[in-house]
Amino acid sequence: MSTPAEADSRRVDQEDEVTKPFLEHLEDLRQMLIRCALALAVGTAITLPFVPLIFAFLKAPLDRVVKHPDLFLQSIEVTGAFSVTMRVGLWSGLLLSAPFLLFFIGQFIFPGLTNKEKAVIRQTGGFSIVLFIVGVWLGYTFTLPVGLRMMFGMHDWLGIQPVPQVTSYVAFVVHLLLAFGIAFQMPVILVVLGRLGLISSQQLRQRRRLVIVILLIVAMVLTPPDPITQVIMAGPLVVLYEFCIWVVQISERRQKHNLRH
Fold first, then answer.
1. Which pLDDT belongs to residue 226?
2. What is this structure's pTM?
């Protein structure tokens, strides 16, 4: 029969066994956040000298909209140039450090995943990057000029002389491009859920009409209030949704074939 002191000691040991993994998990999270912050800082430091070139790239769509784009944007604040530099440098640094950020996050998350989940994420990682690039390219090439032309056209319609601030323009462009890149991650999420068996191709077909309505609403929220830009975003997403149904169906057939054999 154990003494009260031994019982208390055993209870403390049991509590340590429960809390120690959680504390180690918090330490891993802290290390991951520190590495991500350092990677972002290094990426931003590398891109800062190239901000003029990046800003020229973001300003290029104005050539299709106004006659003198270099004279069109104005900075009415003393800190305007500094704000633009830091904003462009930060977002560019985020894109540059994205592979390292994903690697550090993966190191933290992967130990808690099953082998099947790890395999699915590895197989769809490249697909996700390609879709993000396609989304940003589509927004930059087609949607951004149309959106700018429509915004300035509304000024003319109301008889208002547009004098856009450079900070407002950069914010508009960056948010639009990010919205397109993030929206094009929807097929990746559907494919991952389908490969994991959480959704089926039949469920995706049954909810096709509802998804199309949701995509139109998302496009309306993320793009300028113009039907053309909304269709430019929603159209490819609807096509990618149909592609997801086909990919999930192929995965289901392979799983059934493996079970039979």
1. 66
2. 0.75
